[in-house]
Amino acid sequence: MKKIALPLVLVILISLSFSGCLGDKGKFVGTWQYSEGGSITFYDNNSVSITNIQPLGVIQLDGLFTYSIATNNVTFTSSGSSGVSVNIAFAYSFPNDNTLVLTRSGISLTLVKTT
Question: Domain residues of the chain, as ranges?
Fold first, then answer.
């Protein structure tokens, strides 16, 4: 019985350690609506479509990007055809299952999940 219990415990511990890493990405996937117009759609292949999100201070994002998640930050990146690259990180939080808050330089963007 001990021979079975130890590998089973190891499998459970490894699964739990990975669930935190994958869990936040799963929370992002879907379409999020901004109350002042525009939306952000996160896909499970690390691409994101940002449509009509008004300027966030000096930042305005619109178009197709890739995203990555690390240490409570989501980073949007793109290599623009004009030679301009984008690499912008936002702190994020999920106050509940249907709300995503992105924050950068004191400016917050609250989004509500629609799908």
Answer: 2-113
Cα 15 from Cα 32, distance rounded (Å): 29
Per-residue pLDDT of 5-56, as tens digits, reads 445 444 454 443 444 445 688 999 999 999 888 899 999 999 999 988 876 6
Q: What is the pTM of this model?
A: 0.73
Q: What three-state secondary structure class fits 58?
A: coil
CATH among 2.40.128, 2.30.29, 3.30.465, 3.30.310 for 2-113: 2.40.128
- Chain segment 58-95, per-residue pLDDT in tens: 567 788 899 999 989 999 998 765 566 788 899 999 99
Structure-token pair, residue 15: 């699964």
